[in-house]
């Protein structure tokens, strides 16, 4: 499965639970996460999507560390199973 297919499915599943998952583009800030997941309960989560088994690049790891250090949730999603776990976790189910 390609990264684009995983990302498209993530967006659909987030929208299904009433959330939004816009693409995050931040000029001059290489390595920012692919998606901001904005949930109905006032929570925003950062998600990096990857092709199955593909690791985070060094700048992506740096962003993940910076976000989590500041108390934000960051997820790397690279499979349908990851999407299912993510949706269950953020939707309380």
Automatic annotation (TrEMBL):
Keywords: Hydrolase, Nuclease. Gene3D superfamilies: 3.40.1350.10. InterPro entries: tRNA_endonuc-like_dom_sf, VRR_NUC. Its cofactor is Mg(2+). Residues 1-81 form the VRR-NUC domain. It comes from the Bacteria. The keyword Hydrolase applies. This is VRR-NUC domain-containing protein.
């Amino acid at each position: 499965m390609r990264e684009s297919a995983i990302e498209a499915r993530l967006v659909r599943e987030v929208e299904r639970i009433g959330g939004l998952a816009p693409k995050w583009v931040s000029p001059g800030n290489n390595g920012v996460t692919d998606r901001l997941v904005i949930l109905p309960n006032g929570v925003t989560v950062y998600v990096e999507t990857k092709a199955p088994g593909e690791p985070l690049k060094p700048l992506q790891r740096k962003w993940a560390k910076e976000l989590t250090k500041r108390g934000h949730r960051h997820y790397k999603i690279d499979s349908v199973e990851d999407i299912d776990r993510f949706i269950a976790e953020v939707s309380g189910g």
